[in-house]
Amino acid sequence: MARLKDLCKNPELFSSGHRACAGCGEALAVRQVLLAAQQPVVGIMPTGCTEIFSSIYPHSAWQIPMIHTAFETAASTAAGVETAYRFLRKAGRMKEDVKFIAFGGDGGTYDIGFQALSGAVERRHKFLYVCTDNEGYMNTGIQRSSATPYGAHTTTSPAGKVVPGKRQHRKDIMEIMIAHEVAYAAQTTIAFWSDLVTKVGKALAADGPSFLNVLVPCPLGWGHAGDETVKLSRLAADTCFWPIYEWDSGRYVINHQPREKLPVEEFMKPQGRFRHLFTQEGGAEVVAELQRHVDAKWALLQKRRECFGAD
Predict the structure, then answer these.
(1) Taking every annotated instance into account, which residue ranges of this chain make up the domain Thiamine pyrophosphate enzyme TPP-binding (predicted)?
(2) Which residues contact 64 (CB under 8 A, 6 or more apart)?
């Protein structure tokens, strides 16, 4: 596992002074990822929250070469850059061991950019794709994405007397990427910084495409106080709403087993996007359904670990 005193010796590749909201989980995730990455590294970033708050001309928080690309093309751009790099290495025109990291939000990963991501991974391009998952299209007005959880209020899944928020459960992007037989895949969140940076190291060392799914609470979109970002990240793991695990060399490893598995409502109650479920008639049934879903997914993950876990 990574040690804090070792990380502090690394250069800050994502500088302060950007324009992220107070308590933005996405900014914390990007900083942690780049602290774990050793230079030289090249970044690829589609349109989204990260692009908006980190690179408004003429300023940039990125202390690495960063390519801004269209919303749907982060993975295809990374594939093109990685291919050009391999050509230059083969031709003897480059000798550095360059790493490539694409950063995409859940909208640009689960939805708009998924076709490009699926294709790049199938072609086995060697790069790390980091999904900074704040569970909605926060940059454009807090619309629902396929990462938005069941029952959440967004501007396109508004909670009312008839419809209690989003009516579908979130897409399981981790299992979809594992089905692509990536070299390495992992899920984590910013509260577990040591786990996160360790997984970045494994992903960059993997012999092929790798995928990292990071939960990044959004104070604006989730409706919580900025100083509760890290707390909510930990609650997401302790309720098993967001399991902390990895898929490495064909094996499942659960990295965080809660000492006491908390009810999912402990994660939901501090958030404005779920407030209606605790004040309106019928909300208890929605909370119960989300709890059932979380329990079922956690039990399935445990079975996968038993069948495909470490010896």
Answers:
(1) 47-214
(2) 13, 34, 39, 40, 41, 42, 43
d(CA 260, CA 187): 20
pTM over cut 0.70: yes
Residues 44, 117: contact at Cβ < 8 Å? no
Separation in Å, CA 282 to CA 18, 56, 220, 296: 42, 44, 25, 22
pLDDT digit string, tens, across residues 244-267? 999 998 999 999 999 999 999 999
The per-residue pLDDT for range 296-308, each reduced to its tens digit, is 999 999 999 999 8
> Quick one: DSSP state of residue 291?
H
CATH number assigned to the domain covering 4-308: 3.40.50.970
Q: Which helix (H) or strand (E) holds 202?
A: helix 193-205
Look up residue 44 and give its DSSP letter: E
Instruction: Spell out the domain ranges in the chain.
Output: 4-308
How do the residues of the chain divide into helix, strand and coil, expressed in percent and rounded to 5?
Answer: 40, 15, 40
